[in-house]
């Protein structure tokens, strides 16, 4: 059962403020096949952004959605298969 408040990214973006989250993305031209992703980063699942950065280092592309609300970051959760941020 899915308890997410938002079923897709466009809904989250429409109702949340820009201060609630940020997206870090680096496209590494040397490796356009792989990307290390953290769709539940920041204060949502603590440590996933840092792990993504450590794995990608300087060689792989990375993407991180970081929840930044002062509290109740779980409302920013979107199930991974539904995470459709462009």
How many strands, which pairing sense, and closed or not: the largest β-sheet?
3 strands, mixed
Uncertain residue ranges: none
Number of helices: 2
Distance between the termini: 25 Å
Q: How many β strands by DSSP?
A: 3
Global shape: globular
Helix content range of the residues, please? 10-25%
Order of helices and strands: HEEHE
Q: Approximately what portion of the residues adopt beta-strand conformation?
A: 15-25%
What is the overall pLDDT average? Answer: 91
Question: Could you tell me the radius of gyration in angstroms?
Answer: 13 Å
SS-based structural class?
A: alpha+beta
Strand order of the largest sheet: 1-3-2
Write structural notes for this entry:
The chain is an alpha+beta fold and 86 residues long. Helix content is 19%, strand content 24%. The chain has two helices and three strands. The chain has a three-stranded mixed sheet with strand order 1-3-2. Strand 2, helix 2 (48-56) and strand 3 form a beta-alpha-beta unit. It is globular, with a radius of gyration of 13 Å. The two termini are 25 Å apart. 22% of the residues are buried. The model has no long low-confidence stretch (mean pLDDT 91).
Task: Summarize the model shown.
The protein is 19% helix and 24% strand. It is built from two helices and three strands; from the N terminus they run αββαβ.
Features:
3 strands, 2 helices, alpha+beta, single chain, 86 residues
Outline the fold blueprint.
Elements: H1 9-15, E1 21-26, E2 35-42, H2 48-56, E3 61-67
Parallel strand pairs: 2-3
Antiparallel strand pairs: 1-3
């Amino acid at each position: 059962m899915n308890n997410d408040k938002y079923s897709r990214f466009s809904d989250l973006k429409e109702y949340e403020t820009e201060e609630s989250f940020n997206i870090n993305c680096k496209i590494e031209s040397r490796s356009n096949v792989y990307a290390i992703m953290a769709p539940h980063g920041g204060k949502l699942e603590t440590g996933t952004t840092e792990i993504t950065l450590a794995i990608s280092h300087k060689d792989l592309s990375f993407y991180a959605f970081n929840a930044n609300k002062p509290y109740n970051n779980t409302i920013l959760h979107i199930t991974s298969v539904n995470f459709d941020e462009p």
